[in-house]
Amino acid sequence: MNVQLDCIFCIQRQALDAVRLVIDDVEKQEKILRVAMAGLLEMNWNTIPPDIADVVYNIIRKESMEDDPYKNIKKECNDYAMEMYPELKRIVDQSATPLLTAARLAIAGNVIDYGTGSNFDINKTISRVLEQRFRINHFSEFVNNLEKAENLVYLTDNAGEIVFDKILLETIISKYKFKNIFCAVKRTPFINDTTLQDAEYVGIDRLPGVEIMNIEVDGNRHNHSDKTFPDIIAENNMIISKGQRNYETLPDIEKIFFMLIAKCPLIAKEFGAQQGDIILKRGSG
User: Fold this and answer.
1) Is 272 left (phi over 0), alpha (psi -120 to 50) or beta?
2) In this predicted model, what pLDDT tens digit does every residue of 13-66 receive, in sequence order?
3) Residue 225 in this model has a pLDDT that exceeds 50
4) Using one digit for the tens of pLDDT, what is the confidence trace for 227-250?
5) Dihedral sign (CA 200, 238, 167, 160)
6) What is the rounded distance in angstroms from the CA atom of residue 132 to the CA atom of residue 134?
C-alpha cells in the first residue's frame, strides 16, 4: 500500500509518542520533533508507509540518544501476555478446533500495537475475536498449505503479541512436520515491534525446531545469512505474516498468509473491511 496523506499525520503522531517516552522536557521534545518533521518533508512520499516511518524513527533514536524508546513498554507487554499464557493455552487445548482457536488468539494479540495508539483492551479483544466472524477467511487454504509445506517462516509483529504467536507456533508444531521453521523478528527496534530480545524473553528460541531470524522485511540484508528477504520468500513455501507493517511491505503472493486486525482505516478499506474486522487472507498474486 502506497503512502496516503493520512499516513503522514499518523507517522508524526508516532514520532511524538516516541519522543515523549524518552524526553520529559517539552522544549527538547519540540526540538527533536522539528528535526523529525524536517526529515519528513525532505522525503519522497511516493513509497510505502514503513519506508517513511523507518526514516523518522531513526531520527528520533539519533536525536534522543535512545536506541529503543519502547523497551520498557515492550517488557510490560511481554510480562502481561506471559501471565495470560497458561489460560490461553487452556483455551486452545480444550477447544474442539485447536488450530483455528490458536489462529484466532494470534490475531487477537495483534491489538497490542502502539503504532496505532495505546487505547486497547486485550481481554475484551480476545473475547470478541474468539467469536467474531472473519471478514476474510482463508483458514482452509491455511491448513492445506501447512499440510504441504516443507519450510515455515513466521513473521512476528509486536511485543506481547509474540506470546500469542508462540501458542500458534506450538499448535502448528504439534500437528505438522517441517524441515525448517524460522521465526522472524525485527533487527532494528521500531515502536513496539518484536526484536531478538523479545523472542528469547518469551521462549520462542526454546520451541523445538524453531530458529529465530533477525530480519528487515524491506529487503535489507539481515543477520541470519547473506540473503535478502526476497531470497527467503523464494526458498520457503509457507509464510505467516502478522500485522499491518508486514502487510504493507510484502508482495501479494500465494505462499503468504496475512493475519491481522484491521486497525487502520486505510488498511481496512484495502481489505474491503471495517475497522476492528479480523483477517486471515492468503496472498493472491
Assistant:
1) left
2) 999 999 999 999 999 999 999 999 999 999 999 999 999 999 999 999 999 999
3) no
4) 566 777 788 889 999 999 999 988
5) positive
6) 6
Neighbouring-strand partners of residue 215: 186
CA-to-CA dists, residue 48 to 10, 89, 124, angstroms: 13, 36, 32
Q: How many CB atoms lie within 10 A of CB 86?
A: 9
Q: Does domain 73-282 fall into CATH 3.40.50.10880?
A: yes
Q: Is residue 219's pLDDT more than 60?
A: no
Number of other CB atoms surrounding residue 224 within 10 Å = 15
Query: d(Cα 188, Cα 50) in Å, to the nearest integer?
Result: 13
| pLDDT exceeds 80 at position 257 | yes
| Partners of 42 in beta bridges | none
- All three cell numbers of 155: 513473521
Q: Distance of alpha carbon 167 from its chain centroid, rounded?
A: 15
The residues spanned by each domain of the chain are 5-64, 73-282
Locus of grid cell 482452509 = 140
Q: Give the bridge partners for 282, in sequence order.
A: 257
